[in-house]
Fold this protein.
Amino acid sequence: MLTIHLSIVVFLPLAAALLAALLPARVGRWLVVGAMAGVLGYAIAMIADYEAGTAGLKYVTDDNWISELGVRYQLGVDGLNLFLIALTALLWVPSTLWGAARISERPKLFLFHMALAETAVLGAFCAQDLALFVVFFDLMLVPFYFLVGQWGGGDRVRATTKLLIYTLVGSLLMLAGAIALGVLSAGGGDISFSFAVLEQRTLGEGTQQWIFCLFAAAFLVKAPLFPFHGWVVDTYRATPTPVLVVLSAVVSKVGVYGFLRIVLPILPDASAYFQDLMLVLAVFSILYGSVLAFSQEEPRLVVAYSSIAQLGFIVLGIFSLTDLGSQGALMQMVNHGLVVAPLFFIIAALSARAAGPATLEQMGGMALRAPVLAALFLVVTFATLAMPGSPNFVGEILILFGAFDDKFVYGAVGILGVVLAAVYMLRIFQRSMHNRAGPGVKPAELGSLELAAILPVAAVVVALGVYPQLVLDRTERATTTKVAPALTAAGASDSEISEAK
Amino acid sequence: MLKSYLPALVFLVLGVGVGVAFTFANSLLGPKRPSKVKSEPYESGLPSDVRKSFRFGVSFYLVAMLFILFDIEVVFLYPIAVRLEEVGTFALIETVVFIVLLAIAFVHVWRRGALEWK
Amino acid sequence: MIELAQVVQAPKIDYQGLAPLFSTIGGSLAVLMIGLFRGRFVQRTLVPAVAALALLVAMGMTIANWEAGDSRPIIEGALAIDTLALFMSMLFYVTGLATVALSLRSDVQREVGAGEYMALLLGAISGMVVLAGAENMVTLFVGFELLSIPLYVLSAGYVRRAHSLEAGLKYLVVGSVGSATLLYGLALLYGATGSTDFRAMAIAIGDTVAVTDPLLLTGVALAATGLAFKASVAPFHQWTPDVYEGAPTPITSFMAVATKVAAFAVTLRLFDYALSDAQVQWGPALAALATVTIVIGNAGAIAQSSLKRMLAWSGVAQAGYLLAGVVVGTQLGLQATAFYLAAYLFMNVAAFAVVIACERVSEHGDGIESLRDLGRASPLLAWPMTIAMLALAGFPATAGFIGKFYLIEAVVAGDYAWLGIVIVVGSMISLVYYLRVIAVMWMGRFEVELPSFPPRRVKAVAGRSPEADARAQPEVASVAILAAAATIFFGIVPSPLFDLVSDVGTSFGGLV
């Protein structure tokens, strides 16, 4: 077993960026990208080191941070966050590279915000203390606010303000919920926010329920799910490509990760109580996202709405409250991140070749002239629509199994979502690659930067499709233990109902 | 508890009532023979020079304020003078401090030109 | 005769405990005298230096007096020192030093006269120190007036500007109403408890006088109202934006920070110590007041285009958060309020310093437009402002976040969980106006009224040399940077501040 200091992993990007601020921009940008590559190296080492079937936390860092408030600086890795950390590390490298190469306006500041964002996201994934999680979760917003507001296109200030207000409203409610959770579960004793301690403590059902609502507000906005997605369109339009990649692929996962890490194990009774509501939201998101994705003219928005649908799937898996469902959800979190990132890079490449505004109208007929682009696009498209042989297939099938296990109706609607995904993804692929080339389209092969950004991620998608056990074996124990309390609670309430009948 | 305030209330009502009553009684009962000379302000028998738009120079207020300030503060010295022997050196030191403060204020006022008539 | 002599017996005085006060009052008199001499050196350098020296000496003596535990009398039955008083005093001195630095280049000093200006400032600080250490309602009122009267004068510092005079007059009138209300309340409290001494009051309440006694409760209500005027707690806040806007900006920043700290220092002592047994009675009332303040303050700030007015309204909202810490009447609440006051100091000083730096060079004065593209023109000023705004909004990695966390924890633990939600909702509303400031500095064209206005690529600002601007007022920039650095530092490593605050928590022996 390796000794890995998670603090180094988390703060390496930020430290490099602070150092780079003192160096000339040309040297500094390689320092930052190098640090991110270092984080990726750490992540790969962790996966290699992590034995399948392990339970419990590894590489734990546990120090006092604010003892007066009962807040500890506690980091750790288990099956639940291992691959999400790896996903973060993997996707930040091409995004930052892309940004470093393409952004000429205030490049050092851009790199600083990217690095701060990576640190915050890694911190949120690694945190094993609720207060620390909240800190990183909120901190995450700051760099994205600047990244969208300063380097975005179109109506960027409006978009970024909307993004921040939407997500921070959720986050602040979660802050209140987290403090209430820590204080009320202590029952006058020592206040603690450590996940391990909170899982042991019990709360009354009514208290659980209102705290659940506060957490759900944060996570559903972040994801986003159907009625909480008001920020999506503006943000996806205005955000610069490298930022959008990590925003959509990684940051949205922090929300759903919060359900698995915090809500299910710590608020099991409330999770069982709100199960149906959450499933309804999930199913609505699947349908709503799929239908709207089909009718969009801008490829970015197609992916935006498809993300809503995909996150609906993930929530469906989590709130099926079964082992299979949650494992599928975790798998799908990784998968969605892996396919969305190359999709956005490809869309950026297409837009650069399109004539005029980046709509499907202005694209088309590129497959022949740019076969590598087309091939990569096809791989990603197939993965998105969950072709057998892709990792998404494994994820979605597990989610659906989980849903069918107990909640048949929701599973049935979920299948409809899979079918719709095929429709909208094939539509965007066809219209951009096959149709007759629009006037002014410059069909050129991928440049080296574009290739460097897209190819490695696409390769990981293929590899996971071949060998999904890599993820499944290492996550199984963790998801099972996290779902267990809620599963028991749901079973108990079901049996109560049947007894009453 | 509140009952003990009742006499105070009675006193208040009586006091106000009597005052108001006498004021009005005066203006109702007394004879009124106003004339122009009578309603003029009295100024040593000379015709009044005061007009509506007359304003005091702001220096009047300044001097008046300073007078009140220093005059009243000096009054505080009397009780200490009467009891000085009983209270001892502490009071003496206090008094000196007090006078020094007054002196500083006086120097300030003087150097800033507040005592010059402008 | 002998009995009488005993009555006027000299009080026991702890001169070491009183030393900081001697330093500020002595400094005040010294600068008044030095200021009488003309000459550039005296007016521009010597007077501020002496004022700063007096504050530094007071700080040193305060540190020497620091000792956790119950309060120790320094003038029998009138003044006491405990860690609460000392902690608050430190905040006054720090604010005072910042104000001295911010005033260095201000033309208000020339208009009032450097000596008078600094003497009034030090006088106000002395009043605050007395207020924070008051053990007795009479001392409380003396301190209250000693703090208020110099500020009335200072807010009218621009003697030739109607705006500033209006601010001074308004502050005088409203402040007098507040003082009168407070005095009336204190009189009724004396009537109810039969003592002006806080300790005796605390003993009397619940013992010789019932907590539901109407006279007591009327007294509490009136005293709370009087203090609410000073702390600009809604609905007694209407003067705040006008006075803050009209007053010279260094004085505004001093009022925004130090006056609020002083008002909360005395509120804590009066409510959590003297009246703590009646908490069940005043708790809900203050909670309602806090709620109203949070909502009104945040709502009022949204529509402001002047930075000073915006910060005034935001100060109203922050007073609401602080009041929430008083409501619960617990040791945790006391500590949380003290912590938030310190955080509040750093955030606001940073923000006001930037406002001062920008209004001096901008044609927009203190309008939000004066910050346009500051991120490009002068990052050394833009970063402190950004940090201050994020901290005021309660973002993590700033002292503002930890402070809010602490406050919410205190109110939840004190059975006021709903007040925690109110704080959170207030923070949400506040995002609208704090973020607007950040957007103006960093994100180019930004139209509030026309959100769909097409954004323009940012251009270099003509006629504005960032380095020259920053160099022209290094003291202002350094105040901003230091305050912002402290905001970040205590947001990441809060333990030094927590150690102090937990000492503060021991001030009132009986508090749980």
